């Protein structure tokens, strides 16, 4: 049986799935290599307004700077571990301690198969907007299947399998397929990653953003994490007011500039004056600037630069991002979770 969780926003759909996982008598208690899980097989999420991508009701809150860093890393086709590790220093514990990450989604989409699949999607849909042949492949059986003894081939095996974008009625619809999805640690980030890709590609194509649908073959949470994670009693809502859907040349220039700025922000030699210059020189559209501001605020926080942190957050004009940041900052004033 397929279970469906539908919402106007990502937060609404996510809260419905959490309720089902906690209360549904049909949930399986399933063993795994990392401990027992509560699992719903064959689950779908439908998000009617994918721009409202931030799951703000998760307790403890997600780190918005890390979520943004993942998005930029993916869109730039990178796989270097150091970039992500700055914004999430414990990530190697879960994804491996090498110089690169095996399952890097952006690298898989833009380089791994010898073709830039995102650029090809733009080319195809620009010329044949009714195409049904676009499948953006992340999974690679040659390197991702377990070995013959059943052992994982790497610590970082992609949970996302593929994306299938289509233009219908002047909107870019998105269908995301996942083999496995951790509702607390993975789902909020996956929503952000692929709805952002959906919005940016829609901007390149000059079409509106349609529905986002995600299929998870195994939607689960680890029973040990139930001691740490939950959904807030009342929904936490704040509108995402930014528009990332801009023409391809401007979008690519903005993404490149953010990536370069973030490389500077994670430099061990960064000074406060370098920090200010990095933000002032970026010259980004407002929506992209807000993404950079949140990552910069976290870079300042990690150095103990509280004045720079507060001043940077105050410049962010997006209520969803400022709310996500406030919840993250409040989390850090209490005992931080060991899990992300």
Q: Report the portion of residues in β strands.
A: 15-25%
Question: What is the name of the CATH architecture of the largest domain?
Answer: 2-Layer Sandwich
- Give the CATH level 1 class of the largest domain: Alpha Beta
How many angstroms separate the termini?
32 Å
Q: Can you give the helix content as a percent range?
A: 40-55%
What is the residue-mean pLDDT, rounded to a whole number? 95
Number of domains: 2
CATH topology label of the largest domain: Thymidylate Synthase, Chain A
- Uncertain regions: pLDDT < 50 for 5+ in a row? none
- Number of E-type strands: 10
What overall geometry do the principal axes of the alpha carbons give?
globular
Order of helices and strands: EHEEEHHHHHEHEEEHEEHHHHH
The oligomeric state of the chains shown is single chain
Radius of gyration: 19 Å
CATH superfamily (homologous) name of the largest domain: Thymidylate synthase/dCMP hydroxymethylase domain
Coarse structural class: alpha/beta
Main β-sheet, in a few words?
Answer: 8 strands, mixed
> How many separate helices?
13
What is this structure's SSE topology?
Elements: E1 3-7, H1 10-23, E2 28-30, E3 37-47, E4 58-59, H2 64-75, H3 81-87, H4 91-95, H5 105-112, H6 117-127, E5 136-137, H7 141-144, E6 160-168, E7 171-178, E8 181-182, H8 187-205, E9 208-222, E10 230-231, H9 248-265, H10 272-281, H11 286-302, H12 306-314, H13 319-333
Parallel strand pairs: 1-3, 7-9, 8-9
Antiparallel strand pairs: 2-3, 3-9, 4-10, 5-6, 6-7
